[in-house]
Amino acid sequence: MTLPSFLTLYNELISTPTISNVTNEELDYSNKPLIDKLASWFEDLGFAIDIQAIPNTRHKYNMLATYSNSENKTQGGLLLSGHSDTVPFDDGQWSKDPFKLTEENNKLYGLGTADMKGFFAFILDALRDIDLKKLTKPIYILATADEETSMAGAAFFAKNTKLQPDCTIIGEPTSLIPIRAHKGFISNSIKVIGKSGHSSDPDKGINAIEVMNLVIERLLVLKQKFKEQYHNDGFSVPYPTLNLGVIHGGDAANRICGCCELVIDIRVLPDNDVDSLYHALCEALQPVMNKYPNRIAIEYEVAPIPGYECKKDHPALQHIEKLVGHSAQTVNYSTEAPYLNQISPTIVLGPGSIEQAHQPDEFISMDFLKPTKIAIEQLIKGFCL
């Protein structure tokens, strides 16, 4: 069967909702309809399809498509990977339909155009013009689930696969500049349980906001400690960062606050051990916890994501730098690379700008269309011919 046109493929991807959300089940969509579409298109190109149900998720799936001209189905070649899900959106901030591909002013608008469902349209468009029967090594396409929340899809795949490609490319929006390293993250909620009462007699209660103030004082000391203790010149922000992101507490001005919750985000360097940084967090708060026993709880918001690095001198990275004509860089955000890097050297490289990710009226410039197709063709030929 003939594949639909590039823009038709793109629109089909964008028009199929695949929002991930850990806090609101109604906003957490199964990605199975999109996975089935991808499976059908790659099957039409002669790929073998493996659809994997992800345990402990709300009907989420990975898809692995494999094309090999030999008995070898797992060794060498190239893995092109992307996540199938998107973040939620605020309908009031969008001027266009998030689930319809809109072409305007040399841009393609829609939820997932840049981050990053559109990458699969580029792959399909490149593959249709390649004589796959001439490939001497396998080509693999991976679509994962829940990257925007738990990264459960990539973690499950890396743990269970037998694949050992020569290289993996994750098509996140990098403006077609190779990314060889990025930070990981730890996200924790810190909850203080006080003792509520009338504000006219504060000694009869324990104000959770006041206790949280002590917690925040300790966190700011830890933030500075991270800055002084760790350093990596490869990053524009060369130390682990600690951000106080969300805080909720209290329900009335004349009531002693009985509960206060703070959510923090720590961005860790590739050579940081996430368990060690979590231990440093607990140690920093221990004096406050000792003063208010059994009133402070620290929990993970999601499982921690480690940092990732592909060494500058790795042959696969050097080969990619030559193919695309750009030197590799590092970034401060996170992707699925720490997991896929367990099975092969992994580079983050894709069309679009990260500045458009998670933004209202998300778009990709149409200036990326031709160079992205060329880049994918060169990568496939460079690793699979």
Q: What shape does the CA trace take? A: elongated
CATH C-level class of the largest domain: Alpha Beta
> What is the helix tally?
9
Query: CATH architecture of the largest domain, please?
Result: 3-Layer(aba) Sandwich
* CATH fold group of the largest domain: Aminopeptidase
Strand order of the largest sheet: 1-2-6-3-7-17
Order of helices and strands: HHEEEEEHEHEEEEHEEEHEEHEHEEH
Structural class: alpha+beta
> Largest sheet, described in full?
6 strands, mixed
The number of E-state strands comes to 18
- Rg, rounded, reads 23 Å
Span between termini: 25 Å
What does this structure look like?
The protein is an alpha+beta fold and 385 residues long. The chain has 2 domains: 6-182 and 308-384, Zn peptidases (Aminopeptidase, 3-Layer(aba) Sandwich), CATH 3.40.630.10; 184-300, Alpha-Beta Plaits. The protein has helices spanning 6-14, 32-44, 118-127, 152-160, 208-229, 274-291, 315-324, 337-340, 369-384, and strands at residues 48-53, 61-67, 78-83, 102-104, 107-109, 139-144, 167-170, 179-182, 184-193, 197-198, 241-249, 255-256, 259-268, 296-300, 308-309, 329-331, 346-348, 363-365. A 6-stranded mixed beta sheet has the order 1-2-6-3-7-17, sandwiched between helices. A hairpin with a 2-residue loop joins strand 4 and strand 5 (107-109). Helix 7 (315-324) packs antiparallel against helix 9 (369-384). The relative contact order is 0.18.
